[in-house]
Amino acid sequence: MSDIRIRDDRAAGRLEALGDGDEVVGRIEYFVLESPGRALVPVHTIVEPAHEGKGIAGSLARELYAVAAREDVVVAPLCPYVVKWAERHPEEAPVADPALLDAAKDWLRAHPGRF
User: Is the entire prediction scored with pTM above 0.90?
Assistant: First the structure.
């Protein structure tokens, strides 16, 4: 497999890893929280089985934090994978304010069909 490209499909709420032929080989599903502060909230990280073990999930998590930094917003991770990744990479993944995490959980409960 050649290099992976990552694209942000903000309208769909997906950060996608693209392989050969622009095949989506992995993704982080997320939403944008607006209140009490703006944050990117990853909910799920998915890598296609044929592409597991190639560092795709980590590349997606790293890019999500990079997108947030470029936009001057925080990441409030609810996805267990992104939470663990952030714990292992504190220099790249600032800890989110607990109030943002609570608001993100409230948003998710209020939108049960979204994810």
Answer: yes
